């Protein structure tokens, strides 16, 4: 926040601050209240992409902004995707009517984009209705996350500080991350190895992602496989290759 404050103070004219609500590789949540306060103080426009927060965080799954008690006045522009928790396709930009009218008239990528098919629009509306009322699915999801963190830590895996469905297992070595991912795939589990340049050097990890569709049995299968594969993390890179 201090680095952002310095940049905003040294910048004249129009100022735009853009952030994820939930960061896709670490699973951590942006300090949106602090960001909103800085943007107000420096007359900057705050844009939040809540692709990984919508449907999961906040009351009725309304996302990172609602979880932190923020309104349209705090965050003028909200971006979201319909291809994750909503389960359809497409994306949206939401904000004050004046700004939305401006985008409709001036955003060339919007003007020259084919309209969403009516069937996708209808399916999206149905998904949003489900998200709004399915607190039980969110509770189940949080149970999976909590149990995974407890059990995976007990197995000796290094987890990053995340309370979202994105649960990275820090490995460090690129080849060890690939070997662990391959070993899990051989056991019927698709857990992607994320390596530089997607993440910083020395921070290769496995990206575990939970959904409400996963069962307790699915979690038990994952934990059992992680227990079987734990020794791969202790091998030298040459041996892993």
3D structure, described in words:
This protein is an alpha/beta fold and 241 residues long. It has two domains: 2-133, Type I PLP-dependent aspartate aminotransferase-like (Major domain) (Aspartate Aminotransferase, domain 2, 3-Layer(aba) Sandwich), CATH 3.40.640.10; 135-240, Aspartate Aminotransferase, domain 1 (Alpha-Beta Complex). It is built from ten helices and eight strands. The chain has helices at residues 2-9, 32-41, 64-67, 97-106, 108-111, 118-133, 135-154, 174-186, 216-229, 237-240; strands spanning 16-20, 45-49, 77-81, 91-94, 158-159, 166-172, 192-194, 204-209. Strands 1-2-3-4 form a four-stranded mixed beta sheet, with helices on one face. Strand 5 and strand 6 (166-172) form a beta hairpin. Helix 7 (135-154) runs parallel beside helix 9 (216-229). The longest helix is centred in the middle third of the chain and has 20 residues, at 135-154. It is globular. The N and C termini lie far apart (41 Å). The model has no long low-confidence stretch (mean pLDDT 93).
List the main descriptive attributes of the protein structure presented here.
241 residues, alpha/beta, Aspartate Aminotransferase, domain 2, Aspartate Aminotransferase, domain 1, 2 domains, 4-stranded mixed sheet, 10 helices, 15% strand
Quick rundown:
With 241 residues, the protein is α/β, with parallel strands linked by helices. 43% of the residues lie in helices and 15% in strands.
